[in-house]
């Protein structure tokens, strides 16, 4: 009787019949995150074509940059070439490969353990923890740490920035390429991404001289980028003539290049290997 009286009163007053019918209505579930729920981070993707190539180096991302609609390469444009660098983190050697990495690089891996004597550091990737020769007192790094030892393959972008003979001064006709590099490296999606700026030479001259020349050229490119307000972590490295692109013709001009290698967020182990190529 009371229920009928309430319904009649509601109708007279023009009120909606919500409360009595709520149990019979169909409803959808709405989830409102609490203060402790972490929202997924959505990372922006590079909009600059060259930045996209340098951020996620692959043959597909690095194709046709600097070409017009007819496929003609502009003379002053950057024409990046995708290549893979294979780093031996134990022997501190680097080789070039024409094959892409078998697995996508993991750039946000935790840092590998630091050892006082890198030559005596255990090869965690090759020795199981029950090996009697396993270094005592060391805890193996997590299994997902790809930079603890062994060989890793990292994609890189080779850009031909030309210098005068026996000089580390960037030629004036290369400034257009640097302008394009600055625009790419200032893409907001690359913010905080570290890169190794690697200088290469051909085989003309002594090995020691070429190591010094390649480092000075890498440093020149790094200074030019930083003076143009590129605020990314840039590390100049010289490979001299040790990582030739054209091994059949060591004096070929394509061996004289600058390579941009995207580094892991914790680049210490990779940089140590890169700097050991020329025994710095």
Kindly describe this structure.
The protein is of the alpha+beta class. 21% of the residues lie in helices and 14% in strands. A six-stranded mixed sheet has the order 2-1-3-6-4-5. Strand 4, helix 4 (207-227) and strand 5 form a beta-alpha-beta unit. Helix 2 packs across helix 3 (175-185). The longest helix is centred in the last third of the chain and has 21 residues, at 207-227.
Global morphology: globular
Biggest sheet record: 6 strands, mixed
Radius of gyration: 28 Å
Unreliable parts = 17-29, 68-76, 121-143
Task: Supply the key terms.
280 residues; alpha+beta; six-stranded mixed sheet; 5 helices
What's the short story on this structure?
The protein has 5 helices and 6 strands. It has helices spanning 2-13, 49-55, 175-185, 207-227, 268-276; strands spanning 81-88, 93-97, 151-159, 195-200, 234-240, 258-262.
Question: What's the helix and strand layout?
Answer:
Layout: H1 2-13, H2 49-55, E1 81-88, E2 93-97, E3 151-159, H3 175-185, E4 195-200, H4 207-227, E5 234-240, E6 258-262, H5 268-276
Parallel strand pairs: 4-5
Antiparallel strand pairs: 1-2, 1-3, 3-6, 4-6
Helix pairs in contact: 2-3
């Amino acid at each position: 009787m009371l229920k009928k009286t309430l319904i009649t009163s509601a109708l007279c007053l023009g009120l909606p019949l919500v409360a009595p019918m709520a149990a019979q209505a169909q409803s959808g579930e709405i989830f409102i995150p609490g203060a402790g729920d972490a929202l997924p981070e959505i990372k922006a993707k590079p909009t600059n074509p060259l930045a996209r190539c340098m951020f996620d180096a692959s043959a597909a991302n690095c194709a046709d940059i600097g070409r017009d609609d007819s496929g003609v390469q502009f003379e002053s444009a950057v024409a990046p070439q995708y290549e893979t660098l294979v780093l031996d983190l134990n022997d501190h050697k680097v080789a070039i490969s024409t094959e892409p990495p078998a697995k996508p690089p993991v750039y946000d891996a935790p840092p590998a353990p630091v050892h006082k004597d890198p030559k005596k550091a255990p090869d965690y990737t090759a020795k199981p923890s029950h090996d009697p020769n396993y270094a005592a007192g060391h805890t193996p790094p997590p299994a997902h740490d790809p930079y603890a030892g062994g060989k890793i393959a990292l994609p890189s972008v080779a850009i031909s920035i030309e210098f005068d003979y026996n000089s580390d001064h960037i030629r004036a006709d290369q400034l257009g390429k640097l302008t394009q590099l600055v625009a790419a490296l200032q893409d907001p999606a690359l913010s905080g991404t570290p890169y190794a700026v690697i200088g290469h030479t051909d085989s003309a001259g002594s090995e020691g001289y070429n190591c010094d020349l390649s480092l000075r050229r890498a440093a020149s490119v790094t200074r030019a980028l930083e003076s143009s307000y590129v605020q990314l972590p840039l590390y100049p490295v010289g490979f001299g003539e040790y990582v030739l692109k054209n091994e059949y013709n060591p004096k070929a001009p394509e061996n004289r290049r600058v390579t941009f290698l995207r580094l892991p967020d914790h680049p210490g182990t990779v940089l140590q290997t890169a700097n050991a190529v020329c025994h710095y």
